[in-house]
Amino acid sequence: MASIGLRFHLHPAAAFSAQPSNASSKPHSHCPPQRTHAAGRRCLLSAKSSNGRPQIGASFSDGVLDGNSSGAGAVVPEQEENTVSITVVGASGDLAKKKIFPALFALFYEDWLPKHFTVFGYARSKMSDEELRNMISMTLTCRIDQRENCSDKMEQFLKRCFYQSGQYNSEEGFCELDRKLTEKEAGKQPNRLFYLSIPPNIFVDVVRSASRIASSPGGWTRFIVEKPFGRDYESSGELTRSLKMYLEEEQIFRIDHYLGKELVENLSVLRFSNLVFQPLWSRDYIRNVQLIFSEDFGTEGRGGYFDNYGIIRDIMQNHLLQILALFAMETPVSLAAEDIRNEKVKVLRSMRKLKLEDVVVGQYKGHTRGGKSFPAYVDDPTVPNGSVTPTFAAAALFIDNARWDGVPFLMKAGKALHTRRAEIRVQFRRVPGNLYRGNVGTDLDMATNELVLRVQPDEAIYLKINNKVPGLGMRLDSSNLNLFYSERYQREIPDAYERLLLDAIEGERRLFIRSDELDAAWAIFTPLLRELEEKRVAPELYPYGSRGPVGAHYLAANYNVRWGDISSDGSF
Predict the structure, then answer these.
(1) Is 238 helix (H, G, I), strand (E, B) or coil?
(2) What is the DSSP secondary structure assignment for residue 30, as one 8-state letter?
């Protein structure tokens, strides 16, 4: 009979004493009697072995007993099944209704969720279980593969959805939630995931109450935290320190939904599994890299929220910078989360801090086109009068390391532009001693290759090459080698939230942001943001529906670059 390796550890949260040593160890009046408070933190399950010593936390996996760092409690019986309880905090908000609940249903529809799971909504709104289900059902669709059992799957999913009303800083509310969760988890090994779909100013209140009162008594407990993670280096650090008063870093899943997008996931595959690209991925062959994000609509009533952050905090400091780090990182030791995140941190720490001269900011103004009027940013009634918050920004960033020294990474992000797109454009250097330079002339862009990863919409990868136009003469043309996902793959691409929710449930952290990543990212942008706000730099105005401020083109020209999304034929 094969021997079984035993590895036990004593989790700090499991350190129960035979007799409470202070008042903080007494049960809460509103908590079940078997839960006590330890060191002013979360409620814990009171348990001790027959010899009076604390119970040792352990879990079974593939025939091996192993200590579980995310929870504490009694030794888990081998026959006991796992269950996952997913609590969406802020369940009545737009993000929950439009993204989180539909993503959970899509995972259930595709049989990706565990066999045993429960979904709870938690918010201040008074609502019954049935009212929650009716609200959720309005946004559920069986869009993936359009199978026949859609209505049956919806009914099954909705039966697992429940609601608990309570204040976000209320221990009573979370105690009642814990009671209901425990009831649903009866007879199974409980694991709990909390999705904080709430404003960042109440993150800490919720984490304090939920971690102390409603953590899993024996399995893991994890918290997904939505951006923004602070407004600058200092506020982000303060938020991290506050969260870590109640959670370990391994319990915090800072979500950036752009990292869950299919083309961003494919970026590492394209680079590290195709030999043709590996030797080209450096300053020796790449002239510049462009990260472009544009929306064809304005703030549309969300100006009050947006005005507190602006386009730099909203898009550039997180979405685009995270993509840049994945693009530029060295080959990680493995695909393990920590190995990948280690390499991303190295890139971010090698980047120069942004200065005012590295950036152009803009703000959209009112415009009439085709008989239709489009409002200015400051026409939004929720935007303060005289606001100088940028709705557009372009920046030139540099990585001071051996691989990327001197290569400009150009970012551009804006609202109310001429099109909706997000893409990565890699422009390669000219061919040295090009035999056909006489046929190309002085058009630098005509003479170079370009690799484009279109993240949205219409996901695609294409490579621009030069080729001869058929005929007796010698005329060169620029053509594209295309991979259009909609043509190559018949399945609809899953939403980014589906991938990230599944990763959080499985404990996969590589697409989530670690605290030192966050510190390094804010260190790049904070000096610029502080200067913009202290000097109240007036943004350059651009018409709603245009390509953005002219200053962005001058910024690119400073580095002998033309923005790649402005093509002569308009095809891409």
Answers:
(1) helix
(2) T
Where is 409: in which H helix or E strand? strand 409-414
Q: What are the b/e assignments for 359-390, b being 16+ CB within 10 Å?
A: bbbbbbbebeeeeeebbbbbbbeebeeebbbb
Whole-angstrom Cα Rg for the chain: 27
- Tell me: the pLDDT tens digits for 4-39? 444 444 444 443 333 444 444 444 544 544 444 444
pLDDT higher than 50, residue 70: no
> Helix crossing, 515-534 with 321-328: angle to 10°?
130
Among candidate residues 525, 68, 516, the one with its CA nearest the CA of residue 252:
516
- Confidence band of 471 (pLDDT split at 50, 70, 90): confident
Task: Determine the pLDDT at residue 146.
Answer: 57
Q: Among 157-161, 374-378, 473-477, whose mean pLDDT is lowest?
A: 473-477
Cis peptide before 228 (omega within 30 of 0): yes
- Which DSSP letter does residue 493 get? P
Show the DSSP H helices in 39-162 as ranges.
94-95, 101-109, 129-137, 150-158
- What DSSP designation does 363 have? E
> In terms of pLDDT, which residue wins out, 75 or 521?
521
Per-residue pLDDT tens digits for 78-105: 556 889 999 999 998 889 999 999 999 9
Cβ within 8 Å of residue 501, ≥6 positions away: 86, 100, 103, 104, 107, 195, 224
Tens of pLDDT along 203-231?
Answer: 999 999 999 999 998 899 999 998 888 89
Please confirm whether the linkage preceding 457 is cis (ω < 30° from 0). Answer: yes
Q: Determine contact, residues 221/189, Cβ cutoff 8 Å.
A: no
Token pair 């590589």: residue: 510
Provide the pLDDT confidence category of residue 118 given band limits of 50, 70 and 90.
very high
217: CB partners within 8 A, 6+ apart = 35, 44, 45, 71, 72, 73, 182, 190
| Beta carbons within 10 angstroms of residue 358's beta carbon | 17
Q: Known catalytic residues?
A: 319
- List, in order, residues 6 or more apart from 561 with CB less than 8 Å away: 287, 288, 290, 408, 410, 427
pLDDT (average), residues 306-317: 91
Q: Which of helix, strand or coil describes residue 271? A: helix
Helix 101-109 / helix 150-158 crossing angle, nearest 10 deg: 120
The H-assigned helical ranges of 317-358 are: 321-328, 337-349
- Rounded distance between C-alpha atoms, residue 417 and residue 546, angstroms: 5
Task: Identify the CA nearest to 174 among candidates 246, 114, 107.
Answer: 246
Quickly count: other Cβ atoms within 10 Å of residue 182's Cβ: 17
155 CB-near residues (< 8 Å, 6+ apart): none
With contact defined as beta carbons under 8 Å apart, do 207 and 174 qualify? no
